[in-house]
Amino acid sequence: MHDIDLERLGEEVPLLEGIRTTRAIRRLRPDPVPEALIRKVCEAGTFAPSGGNRQPWYMIAVTEPERRAFIAERYRRAFELYIAPARKAAEGPDFPEERRRNIAAAVHLAEHLHEAPVLLFVAGWTRRGQEQSQALFPCIMNILLACRAVGLGASLTTVHRAFGREIDQYLGLPEKIPSSAMLPIGWPRGRYGRPRRKSVDEVLFFERFDPEVIEPR
Ligand SMILES: Cc1cc2nc3c(=O)[nH]c(=O)nc-3n(C[C@H](O)[C@H](O)[C@H](O)COP(=O)(O)O)c2cc1C
After folding, report:
1. What residue ranges define each of the domains in the chain, with the CATH number in brackets?
2. Percent over 70 (pLDDT), the chain
3. Over the stretch 162-216, which tens digit does the pLDDT of each residue have?
4. Mutation choice for ligand 1 from 83, 155, 185, CB with most ligand atoms inside 8 A
5. Contact by Cβ (8 Å): 45, 139
6. Residue 89: how many other CB atoms lie within 10 Å
7. Is the whole-model pTM more than 0.85?
8. How would residue 2 be classed by pLDDT, with cut points 50, 70 and 90?
């Protein structure tokens, strides 16, 4: 890592190619991530648009092992409750293989979360007493794309929210600045690649939507 020019790293990935090959990377190596790189991906977050250009975001990068363990223990508990119905459904014979793999990756992340070298929280100002997660998602997406550009693995998680204030207090966040997302970040064990997504032709309409095409959910 030491002979890599961190300032140049990621600067040459074409924007659209980077977008098309950013997927949830949940299998991470425990090796540390240089602070300069954490700063670099978070800087990408600060270029996101926001209502009235209020830039409501703050980022907290948790790297100390005991602090990561505290958070991981709670994440695991919340995740168990969240994933239980999907796990049960996945036992069925007709369960789609793609979805089964997705669940396996999410389970892996939950079981190994304490090993992820960086747990990056994105928090933001409430407005009129309401949490404004949607105001943070452009920032979060920029961070995920910047991770892709520099070769870091990352994914977007929210289940820690089940612990409400406990984790926020642990992070020193005041009530007016709740965390909305946690991004476990580290060097990927796997590779970036095109994720499976619907074709644009299934979702794009010109002038008028056609309700006939909707698949029942
Ligand atoms: C709002 C939101 C919340 C999410 N929360 C979690 C989470 O708590 N845990 C998790 O493992 N993945 C979480 N994800 C990641 C999705 O599961 C992932 O983006 C999706 O499965 C697609 O994965 P892929 O990019 O590898 O195809 C979340 C994604 C979004 C957009």
Report:
1. 16-190 (3.40.109.10)
2. 99
3. 987 999 999 999 999 999 999 999 999 988 999 999 999 999 999 999 998 888 7
4. 155
5. yes
6. 13
7. yes
8. low
Q: How many CA atoms lie within 13 A of 153 on its CB side?
A: 20
Q: Which of 157, 163, 192 has the most ligand 1 atoms within 8 A of CB, as the residue to mutate?
A: 157
Distance from C-alpha of 4 to C-alpha of 128, rounded to nearest angstrom = 45
Distance, in Å, from the CA atom of 43 to the CA atom of 158, rounded to the nearest integer, reads 21
Alpha-carbon distances of 20 from 14, 17, 154, 181, 194, rounded to whole Å: 10, 5, 15, 22, 6
77-136: pLDDT as tens digits:
999 999 888 888 888 888 888 889 999 999 999 999 999 999 999 999 999 999 999 999
CB of 158 within 6 A of ligand 1: the answer is yes
Q: Is the CB of 24 under 6 A from ligand 1?
A: yes
Cα(27)–Cα(148) distance, integer angstroms: 14
